[in-house]
Amino acid sequence: MSLDDRDMILDVACSVVNVSATEPDGNVVVYCTGIITEYDEVGKCAKVLSSSSIMCSEEGKLRDPNQKVSVHLSNDTVVEARVLFFNDHYGVSFLDINTEFPLVPATLGSKPYYGQNVFVLDRDDEYALVVSHGSILYLEKPLFERNHYMFASYNSSLTCICGPVIDNNGEVIGLITSHLPQSAILSISIVKKCIQMWNKFGRIAHPIHHLELKTADVGYGLQR
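Given the sequence above, the corresponding C-alpha cells read:
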C-alpha cells in the first residue's frame, strides 16, 4: 500500500461508522458497518447507509420490532437511529440520525467493473478500522435470484457486512452485503437507485423474472 493509498483510505474512513441493533433486554444482536452519505450542518442530521441485517435475520425473519438501532461515531458517542427503509433482497438499510458532531459524507461513485483493483473498509465491534485489498473477480453466482452480486478477491478475518468497496480515487463503488463464502458486492449504482425509488415512491421494487443472467464481454470491459 502506497502513502497516497493510505491517505486516501484515512479520508474515506472518516465516513465509515459502526451500526448495532440491540434487543429490549440489552442484548446486542448484530454489528455491521455503516457509511455516512449525507450530513446537514444546519439541521445537525445525517443519513447512514447500512445493512438490512439490523432489521432481519439471514433467513429473512424480522427482528424484534422494539429493538434499538444505534450508530457509533468516532468521538466515542452512540446515537439512536431511525430506520427510513430496509430491503432484504438487496441487503441494505437507510438510517437517519441527529448529532451535533460534524460528519463527513462519503463520495459515491458510479459502479465497479470486473478486474478493478479495490479496497474494502470495515469497522469491527471495537470500532477499529480494518482495510483489505483485492480486485473484482470475473465470477458470477446468481444465488437466490440475486443476479446483481459481484465478488472480490480479498481475504479478511472479519465477516462484517456493508463495508464500503472503494476505488483508487476513494469513491464508494459498492458495498459488501454477504459472505458466500466469497464476499458479495452490491454495486453502488443499485443502492442509489433504491434511494431514488424510496424518495420518489416510498417503496423499493425489484423485478422477479426467475431468470439467471450472465454478463457478456463485448470488448469494452465488463461492468455492472
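The first strand starts at residue 16 and ends at 22. Try to locate this feature in the C-alpha cell string yourself.
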